[in-house]
Amino acid sequence: MNNLMQMEWYRLKYNKFFIGCSLLSIIYGVFASKGYVADLTTRVDAIGIFTAMVYDSTIWLVLFSAIAALLIGQDFTNRTIHLEVVAGHSRIKIFISKCLIYLAVFNILMLISPIVGSIRMSFLLGWGDSWNNDVLYILRVVGFSVLLNSAVFSVCIFFAFIFRDSARTVSVSMIVLFVSAMCIAYAGPMGWYDSLPWLRFLPMNQIRTSLAYSLSTAQVSEIFLSGLVYLLFFISLSFQRFNTCELR
Fold first, then answer.
1. pLDDT confidence of 239, banded at 50, 70, 90?
2. Are 74 and 68 in contact (CB under 8 A)?
3. Does residue 61 contact residue 152 with C-beta atoms inside 8 Å?
C-alpha cells in the first residue's frame, strides 16, 4: 500500500489544480489576513486572526471539496483505478491509500491560509499573553478541523465512487455543499435550529462551534461524534460501492 500512497502523492503534487489551490491558499493568507483585524472582538492578536480565518473558511471547504471530487472522478474517467486493479492491487488498498492521501492533503490546504495569515499578522499584533493555553487551543482547533473537514470531504468521496465520473461528481457535490453552507448561514437568524435541530450536527456548523475558547465536555463530545459519525458513514458507503461496482 505504500507504493500506492507514493503514487497518489506523486500524481497529486504535480496536478495543476492542486498546485493552483496551494498557491491560492498562501496568497489569500498573506493578503487577506489584515482585513480580519476589523472583525476581531475578544482576541486582537494572531490567535484571533487564526480563529477568524478558520471560522470564515466555509467557501474554501466547498471549493477544495469540489477539487477533491474532481480529481477522484478523473481517476475513474482516465481509467487510473481500473489499471491499478488490473495491476493486482486489492480494492481495499486502493481505496484506503486514495482516501488517506486526499484527506491529508486537502486538510493541509484548508489550514494553510489561517496559519500563514496568523503568522503574517503576528508581526503586527503579537501572539497574546497566555501562550501555553493558546498552544493547546490551536491544537484543539486543528484537531477538530481535520476531523470535521474530513467528514465534509467524505461526502464528495462518496459521490465520486457513486457516479465514477468528474462532471456528475463535481456538480452534485457542489449543490449539496452549497445547500449545506446556506442552511448554516441562515439557520441561526431564521430560527431553524428549533424546528430542525439536526442542522446543528452538520460538520460545517460544528467547525464554527469548535472555535469557542472554552468548551464543555458535552460540546466536545458532540463535535467529536458529529465528525466521526459523518466520516465513518460516508467512507463506509463509498467503499461498499467501490467494492461491488464494475469498473469500465
1. very high
2. no
3. yes
pLDDT value at residue 41:
75
Q: What's the mean per-residue pLDDT of the chain?
A: 84
| Cell numbers that stand for 214 in this block | 472554552
Q: What is the structure's pLDDT at 196?
A: 65
Q: What is the pLDDT of residue 146?
A: 94
Query: Cell numbers at residue 141, please?
Result: 482547533
Measured CA angle at 25 (ends 57, 115), to 5 deg: 75
What is the SS3 assignment for 58-113? HHHHHHHHHHHHHHHHHHHHCCHHHHHHHCCCCHHHHHHHHHHHHHHHHHHHHHHH
pTM: 0.88
- How large is the average pLDDT for residues 122-143? 81
- Closest CA relative to residue 15, chosen from 86, 109, 96, 88: 109
- Choose among 148, 114, 155: nearest CA to 220: 148
The DSSP secondary structure of 120-151, one letter per residue, reads HHHHHH---S-HHHHHHHHHHHHHHHHHHHHH
Q: 152: burial class by Cβ within 10 Å (0-12, 13-18, 19+)? A: buried
Q: Which residue has the cell 486582537?
A: 44
Q: What is the pLDDT of residues 53-80, one digit of tens each?
A: 998 888 888 888 888 888 888 878 777 7
**In contact, 144 and 210? CB cutoff 8 Å:** yes
DSSP one-letter code for 247: P
DSSP assignment letter at 246: P
